[in-house]
Structures are given as C-alpha cells and as structure tokens.
Design a protein that fits this description.
This protein has 300 residues and is an alpha/beta fold. The chain has a domain of 209 residues: 2-enoyl-CoA Hydratase, Chain A, domain 1 (Alpha-Beta Complex). Helices cover 47% and strands 16% of the residues. It is built from ten helices and ten strands. Helix 2 packs parallel to helix 3. The radius of gyration is 28 Å and the shape is flat.
C-alpha cells in the first residue's frame, strides 16, 4: 500500500512540474508574441511617418520604387523621410527613384523630406532634389553634379600576349566603347554628346527642385563635391540637421501633432548577404559593371 501511495505522490509531483513548466513556457511565448505584435497594434489607425533608406551605390531602383508605391498608397502615412547615404550610381535608377518621389508628392500629396547621411552625392543628390525639403549634416559630402563613364582599353595588352580581336558589325558605331580597339575622335564625340545630354538633365532637375536658375546651377555642375555647410550656402540644401530633425520637420510640414511613430520596411533575410557580411563585414558592395554605363556617381 505504501508503494502505491509513493507512486501516486511521485506522479502528482510530475504533473505539477509539467503544469509549472508549460505555464512558464506559455508566459514566455506570450511575451515574445506580444513584443512582436504590440507595436503594430499600437499603431493601428494612427498616422505615421515612413522612413525609406537609400544606401550604397544606386544600381537597382526596384526595392525603393516598391516602398514608395506602398507608402504612397497608405492613407495613414502622412509623410516620407528619405535617408540618403549614397555616392550615387546609375543614371537610370537614379532618375526612376527621382520620378517616384515626385509622383508621391504630386499624385499622392505626401510630404517628402530628405535627410543626408555621410554622403549624398551625384545620383544620391539627384534623388534628393525631388523632395520638399533637404537636410544635411554640416560634414555631409554632397554635390558632385556631373556624369561619368569609364572605359578600359586592352588593345596593347592583347597585342603583347598575341590575341587578335575580330568584329563583324552592321553599323558604324555598333562597337563604340569597345575595349579591344582605340577610340576614334568620332566615337569620343558621340559619347560626349550622350554625357552632355545626361548632364543637362541633371542640371535642369536641380534647377527645378531647388528653384534656382539654370545658369546658377551650371556654375556648380562641374563635378565638385561640397560639405553640407557649403551646400547650404549655395542653396543646394535647406537646413542643417540629422535624421531626428528631418522626422520632426516632416511631421510639422504634414500637420502631425506630437511625436508620430516612424515605420520602415525590414528587408527580407538573405543568406548570401549574411554570409558576405560575416566574411567581409558591412562594407557596402561597390558597383562592378561591364560594358558602357552612364553613371551619376561620385568618383574615388
């Protein structure tokens, strides 16, 4: 009989331990889920500011365009802050994001404020001029209003190692910019005309966005870089301030009271990016491209 009582006592103790264990686990799970869900619940039906980050070389406009479209269609997003920390990049993706910012301002009636980080030059600055206001830190590297195309010539190297290149083409300029032959003067003039046209587009965008005369912008559009303080003196930025100041200004301009919540898109997990970051740290990837590319890019 005593053995049976001992067995029953041990069984009751095990059951109590199980209940305590699962109660603790349930509490932990509720805390984790609550922390994840609570911020979303708090912001339900609450006006907010969206933060869109443009960081590193601008080579693909797709993710930023998607963010701008999503936030532009969200009635609770009253303003968007662009955080630009980029030396620029391709002409086309820079122009696509520039137009997306203008659409959000014009068609969706959203306030857009740009906050410049360490560097917001060339294509990064091109995007900034589409916003309502631009804030830079005093030491932000900005400007670099210009276009660059870099081409290599391997003709002497190929001659040295005894490799010949044969080209069959259907048009006079079909192989313009080829690394396997010397660039002729007519080729150079053709490419220069492209550069001049893209440069003119940049100048006109700055003049329109900053309410300046084209002639005034031309005097600064020689590729020079400026500090944030110098850019303010030249009317290329509106105010000196950091990201906090930009959020505060965006709230004021859009008529939001108090300190509004700030939301931003969390990029999906990428094993490749995680692996590269583990091996090489958080150094931004440098644009490695082949062929002929027009770049709104600050050269190093």
């Amino acid at each position: 009989m005593e053995d049976d009582n001992d067995t029953l006592t041990m069984s009751a103790r095990r059951q109590r331990r199980r209940r305590v264990f699962w109660s603790v686990m349930s509490g932990i799970i509720l805390v984790i889920v609550g922390n994840a869900v609570w911020p979303t619940l708090v912001m339900l039906n609450k006006e907010r500011i969206a933060l869109v980050r443009i960081e590193g070389p601008i080579l693909d406009a797709g993710p930023t365009l998607k963010e701008m479209e999503t936030y532009g269609d969200d009635p609770l997003v009253k303003a968007i802050v662009l955080r630009i920390d980029s030396p620029g990049g391709g002409v086309t993706p820079s122009q696509e994001i520039y137009r997306a910012v203008k659409r959000v301002r014009g068609e969706k009636q959203k306030t857009v404020v740009t906050s410049m980080g360490t560097v917001a030059a060339s294509g990064g600055y091109y995007i900034a001029v589409a916003s309502d206001r631009i804030l830079a830190n005093p030491g932000t590297i900005t400007g670099s209003i210009g276009v660059i195309m870099q081409l290599a010539n391997l003709e002497d190297l190929m001659d040295k190692i005894g490799v010949k290149n044969f080209v069959i083409k259907s048009g006079r300029y079909k192989d313009v910019g080829s690394p396997f032959r010397t660039m002729g003067e007519d080729d150079r003039q053709l490419l220069q005309s492209m550069m001049d046209d893209a440069h003119r587009q940049f100048i006109e965008a700055v003049a329109e966005g900053r309410s300046l005369d084209v002639a005034d912008v031309e005097g600064l559009a020689d590729g020079r870089v400026l500090t944030g303080q110098q850019a303010k003196d030249e009317l290329l930025v509106d105010e000196l301030g950091d990201l906090h100041d930009a959020v505060k200004l965006a709230a004021e301009m859009s008529g939001m009271e108090g300190t509004p919540p700030v939301v931003e898109t969390t990029p999906p997990f990428s094993f490749r990016k995680w692996l590269m970051g583990s091996l090489f740290g958080n150094t931004p990837a440098w644009p490695v491209q082949t062929g002929m590319n027009l770049m709104y890019l600050m050269a190093f």
